[in-house]
Specification:
The protein is of the alpha+beta class. The protein has 2 domains: 2-100; 103-174, no CATH class. 63% of the residues lie in helices and 11% in strands. The protein has helices at 2-20, 24-38, 41-48, 55-66, 71-83, 89-102, 115-129, 161-174; strands spanning 104-109, 135-140, 148-151, 156-158. Strand 3 and strand 4 form a beta hairpin. Helix 1 (2-20) packs across helix 6 and helix 2 packs across helix 6 (89-102). Keywords: ATP synthesis, Hydrogen ion transport, Ion transport, Membrane, Transport. It is found in: Membrane. One of its GO terms (cellular component) is membrane. It holds the Pfam family OSCP.
Length: 175
């Protein structure tokens, strides 16, 4: 448990450093790609701790799967592998994703929003939740009909016409 907490601390420190360098978004995409490429993180973790596989083969494998990723993430991932004897690598992946998504604001709308509109929504949401969201993703969702849905990891504000129509429909069926 202590080592898992140490890995989490290491990843959060790395995430904050990358955020200061404006590389957190790029690394997030890399980490998602890495997780999708690995497919089964449990099997990956199990294979990394097998004693019958020499460390140099494990290292060569890790270098191979991270060669197309940003050097910062690749170096951090390899350093983590060394520091924890090839344990907790899946945790490092998941902790980075969690750290990023904790500060991600997703705005869904039917039409594209201007930068000004996005910033206004972001500012009001940050004020309401008293939390900073340095990462904002805008998604076009035609099913909303109109309005916007704003999501964070722990909160959803649905101001869409679809929701309003659904509420009206429920009220009509109740009466």
């Amino acid at each position: 448990m202590k080592k898992t907490l140490a890995v989490r601390r290491d990843v959060e420190t790395f995430y904050k450093e990358m955020q200061k360098l404006n590389k957190a978004d790029i690394i997030y995409k890399d980490v998602i790609d890495l997780r999708e490429g690995i497919q089964n993180l449990n099997k990956f973790d199990q294979s990394m701790v097998l004693e019958r596989i020499p460390d140099d083969e494990k290292l060569a494998f890790l270098k191979d799967i991270t060669k197309s990723l940003t050097p910062e993430w690749s170096n951090f991932f390899l350093e983590t592998a060394y520091a924890y004897h090839f344990n907790y690598l899946a945790d490092a992946i998941n902790f980075y994703i969690a750290a990023y998504e904790k500060e991600l604001l997703i705005i869904e709308s039917v039409v594209p929003l201007s930068n000004e509109q996005t910033e206004r929504i972001k500012a009001s949401f940050e004020k309401k939740l008293q939390h900073s969201f340095p990462h904002v993703k805008h998604q076009l969702v035609p099913d909303l009909i109109g309005g916007v849905v704003v999501r964070t990891k722990n909160y959803v504000l649905d101001g869409s016409l679809r929701k309003q129509f659904t509420q009206i429909e429920r009220q009509l069926h109740v009466k």
